[in-house]
Amino acid sequence: MGKALNIPEPEPDLSFCDVHGHVPWIEGTFKSDAWGKTLASADKQHADFKKAGGVFFITCSIDLNSAVEILKFVEKHRDVCYSCGMAPQTVTYTKTKAYESEFKQWLDIIEKNGEKIIAFGEIGLDFHHAKALGQRKRQIDELDRILSIVKGKKKPIVLHVRNAGPSDKDMGNPDHAFNQPDAAAREVVALLDKHGISPARVLFHCYSGPSSLNEELAKRGFFFSIPSSAFGFEKWFKVSTSLPLERIMTETDSPFQHPRSMEPINAPENARYAIAAIAHARGIDQKVVATTTLKNAKAFFKIP
Ligand SMILES: [Zn+2]
After folding, report:
1. What's the gap in Å between 60 CA and the centre of ligand 1?
2. What is the band of 32 on the pLDDT scale with cuts at 50, 70, 90?
3. Which residues have C-beta under 5 Å from ligand 1, the single-atom ion?
4. How far is the CA of 247 from the centre of ligand 1 (A)?
């Protein structure tokens, strides 16, 4: 928690942005009702963000439903940008036939809302949610298809990459390379290379490493966003410490990745906790981190 990591609170007058969150969050998308009571409305989250010093935030869809809801929300707020995604979890939890129908309608949204879409994502691979080899291969095939469509659209790409953890082993194929702690990340990079997508337009959102990849990915020119949970959770703090400041941005992944809680109650205003964590790790001023990460995000997403 914040106390254990001993990170000072964010200063009160920072200007910052949140490059990745899910506002409004679609209740019932995942099977839980824990947040319905505690998560503020999307408009309240937006107002709180502005009050706290937020400049702009980017809200990301993960499937067709969230795409429809988010388009309505961004219509109302000029300082909220939209990243259109199809999450790997959606691929895994949607049966093939239903997914095909959903995917067609999702493509239609992309075609009809070209100028409203600032980026594509989140898209990627999640080997925690997909443990069996067949499920993992299906995610790879779908990401391949998505990349073949978005590569020509000249917009940033926002990646969700979750490698298999120790408890995510594919028990049917215990020796398969996909069980390695960097396998999902390596597969994603291989697909980006296959499609000739430059790392300069690719952001690893909620970057989770492993740290052994940091140097290699940074050298290639990829960007990374650090979640608010880096303030209170060692896993997220540690992996971010060796990333170069000129390649990082701040995010919340709201309603997830709260600075202090595992509950899905996070909101864009908490992106400033990522600033506190980044500054603490490097022993530099929070204002320098705020200015630099905001500048990085504006340049990457081409926000004036
Ligand atoms: Zn997300």
Report:
1. 7
2. very low
3. 253
4. 19
Structural domain boundaries in the chain? 2-7+46-301
Q: 22 CA to middle of ligand 1, Å?
A: 6
Instruction: Give pLDDT tens digits for 167-226.
Output: 999 999 999 999 999 999 999 999 999 999 999 999 999 999 999 999 999 999 999 999
Please enumerate in sequence order all residues whose Cβ is within 8 A of that of 112, keeping only pairs 6 or more positions apart, or say none: none
Q: How far is ligand 1, taken at its centre, from the CA of residue 160, in Å?
A: 7
Whole-number Cα distances in Å, 268 to 55, 250, 257, 274: 11, 10, 11, 11
User: Does the domain spanning 2-7+46-301 belong to CATH 3.20.20.140?
Assistant: yes
pTM assigned to the model: 0.95
Distance 132 CA to ligand 1 centre (A): 23
How many Cβ atoms sit within 10 Å of the Cβ of residue 36? 11
What spacing in Å lies between the alpha carbon of 253 and ligand 1's midpoint?
5
